[in-house]
Amino acid sequence: MEAVDVRYPIGKFQAKESYLPQEVTAFIQRIESLPLKLVNAVSSLNDAQLDTPYRDGGWTVRQVIHHMADSHSNAYIRIKWTLTEESPIIKAYDEKQWAETPETSLPIFLSLNVLQALHAKMVALAKSIPHESLSKKFIHPESKKEVRLDQLLGTYAWHGEHHLAHITSLKEQKGWL
Q1: Coil, strand or helix: which one is 89?
Q2: Domains of the chain
Q3: What angle do CA 60, 61, 66 make, to 5 degrees?
Q4: Stretch 5-32: mean pLDDT, rounded?
Q5: CA distance 30 to 58
Q6: Is the pTM of this model over 0.90?
Q7: Are 129 and 149 in contact (CB under 8 A)?
Q8: How big is the CA angle at 90 (ends 85 and 117), to the nearest 5 degrees?
Q9: Each residue of 34-60: b (16+ CB within 10 Å) or e?
């Protein structure tokens, strides 16, 4: 049996060329359910546990939570750009440096609140997008790849669960259940 790569506890995301309406609906449901799952996963953790890296050389649980708020904020803005502009070139950011800015040491409830509000807005917006508009694309400036909205929704359904698994795997490993 192969060992699980702790960096990718649920595996890496592999986008398909396009997605069926029911697949997109499932992505949206996963995005919608993430904030509560995240709150449930971290509500019992103390500061020492929140400041524990999920793997050697990895981010702390606190940094992961703040990263998710930053990353999902960027995703929401990318959706809005793609819906309102023709194949926009998005703004890239250095997620590793963002995870080390001073506010990432603040209490996690700030980012949990951001995620709750942001996901409510993202879900409402995503549910309103006609299926034919999910083929609209943005361009990533570094890779020059075109990314469809349905692929972005799939990516962020995975992204939330990916980081949630970092936290739940650490809790299991440490016996913090």
Answers
A1: strand
A2: 21-172 (1.20.120.450)
A3: 95
A4: 96
A5: 25
A6: yes
A7: yes
A8: 85
A9: bbeebeebbeebeeebbebebeeeebb
